[in-house]
Amino acid sequence: MTISEAVEGSEIAVEPELLAGLESGVTTSGVVEERFDVEAPFRGTVVGQLPACDDDDIEAAFDRAEQGQKAWEERSIEERAEVFKRYHDLVIDHTEDLLDIVQLESGKARRHAYEEVLDVALTSRHYAYRASDYLESEQREGALPGLTETEVHHHPVGTVGIISPWNYPLSLAVSDAIPALLAGNSVVLKPAEQTSYTALKAVELLREAGLPRDVFQVVTGFGQTLGEPLVARSDFVCFTGSSETGRIVASQAGEHLTKCSMELGGKNPGIICADADINKAVEGLIRGCFTNAGQLCISIERLYVHEDVYGQFVEAFVDEIESLQIGASYDHDVDVGSLISEDQLEKVTEHVEDAKAEGATVLTGGTGRPDLGPYFYEPTVLTDVDESMALCANETFGPVVAVYEWSDEDDVIERANDSDYGLNASIWTEDIDRGREIAKQIETGTVNINEGYAAAWASIDAPMGGVKNSGIGRRHGDEGIMKYTESQTVAVQKRLGMTNPPGVPHWLYAKLMNTTLKLQRRIPGMR
Ligand code: NAI
Ligand code: MG
What we know:
single chain, Aldehyde Dehydrogenase, Chain A, domain 2, 3 domains
C-alpha cells in the first residue's frame, strides 16, 4: 500500500502529499532492505512505511555529518543564527501542517500538539539571539598577574547524536539540536520509530531555513539496532526517553568516554497547600496531569492535598475532569487525545488494574475508551494508593494521578522526595515566599509554583533536567548549549618565565614566591 492510499483509508484529515516525499530526508547507505509501519493511533491504521535503517546507514549518516561539520563551524555565529531566526518564522507559518503530522502519528489533542510548535519557536529564538554571548571567547585571570594572558574558547564537540522519544515528537526531535547546531556541531538524529514523519518534517523546514543538507542527518528505525553504532560515532549523545533505556545508552557512552545528557522519566509530585486558590489549582493540574494524556516526562502523577482543602479540591477536580472533552479530532477544542499505542494502553491498564486489585479507589476514569479509538484511556484519579501497587512509585506515563492527604509540611516534603526520580514538582499556594521555601527543599530539577510544568519548561533561559534516576545534565539556558562544546584554555606567558629568573637561585625564588603568595592573599584585588 502506498502512503497516500493509507492516509486516505484512515479517514483522517491529513493531506497525503504531506507525508509523501518526507522519506527522502532519511539517510541510507544504499538499498533499503527492511521497512517498518507507521501507525496513526486515532484509528490504529498504518499510514506509511519508513526505512528500518542498520549500522551501515548510521555509518553513512556520520560520514556525511562529519564532512558537513567543518564548513558549518567556519561560518560566523551570526550567520548560523540567521538560519534559526528564519526557522522560527517558518515553523510558525507551517503550524497547521506540523500539528496535522504530530496528531497523525501521536494521537494527541491538537492543543497539546501546539505546545510543541511554541517550544520549537521559543527555543529557536532564544538560542538564535543568545548563542553569540554564550559562545564568545573570554579573558580569564592568568597564572601570574600581568605576565600571563589567558583566554578560553568554546569549540564544537563535532557531531552530536540525538535519540528522541515519541511523546513530544516535534520538540524533542529538534529543540535539543538547535543549540548543538548553533554551537557549530552537526547532528545525527534517531527519532522514535512511532513518530519519525514529524521529525522528518521538522528537519525539512530546517533545510528550507538554510541549514546545509549534510549538517543534519536523520536515520529512521529501532533503537535496539541503531543505538550502539550511533553512540560509538557520536562526540556527544543527547538522549530523551525512559530511565531503563537511558541507563543502557549512558553506559555505552561511558565505554567510549563520550559526554552525554539524559532526560529520563519522572514520578512527579504536586503539593496543594491549605491556602491554594482551588480554582486555579484545578485548572492547572488538569493540564499538569492530563496534557498529552499524561505521556509527558514532567507531568504530575502524585498529588498531595492539604487536609483542610482535600474534600473541596478533590470534588472540584473530579467534576472538572468529567466535563473534559476526549476524542479523536483535528480541532483545537478537544481536551484530551489518545495514548500513542497498544503498548502504552497495556501499561496504563496494568497499573490501574493492579492498583484496583490491591485496594485503590477510582474517583473517576479507570477504564479504556475503545468507543473513541483503540488506545483511548479516561483521565483517572485514584485514592487509597499504597506501596503494594506498581503505580505508587513507578512512572505510569498515562492519564493517571494518585491523590493523597497531608497535614504536616515537613512530612509532605519528605513524601514528595521519597522517590527514585527527581524531574519536576508543582506547588500550589497563595504565599509565594513559602512556596519558594518549600521548592528549595524538593529534590527535583524543576519546580513550578502555581503551575504544573509549563512555567519552568518554557523558561528557555533557565536549565531544565532531572536528578536521581531522572537524568544527567540539562537542556535550555547556558548549560543547554555549553554541553555541546569543549572548552579550550590558551595561555600566553610574557616577559618572565614560570620559574626562577636567570641569576636568581631557586631557594631565593621560592622564598620570594612564598612572601608574594602571602601578600596576595591579604591584598584585596589580588586574590
Ligand atoms: P524508550 O526510552 O525505549 O525509547 C526512546 C527512544 O530510545 C526511542 O527513539 C527508541 O527507539 C530508543 N531506544 C530504544 N531502545 C534503545 C536502545 N537499546 N539503545 C538506544 N536507543 C534505544 O521508550 P519506549 O520503549 O518508547 O517506551 C517505554 C516506556 O518508557 C514508556 O512506557 C514510558 O513509561 C517511558 N517513556 C518515558 C519518556 C519520558 O520522557 N519520561 C519518553 C518515552 C518513554
Ligand atoms: Mg523500549
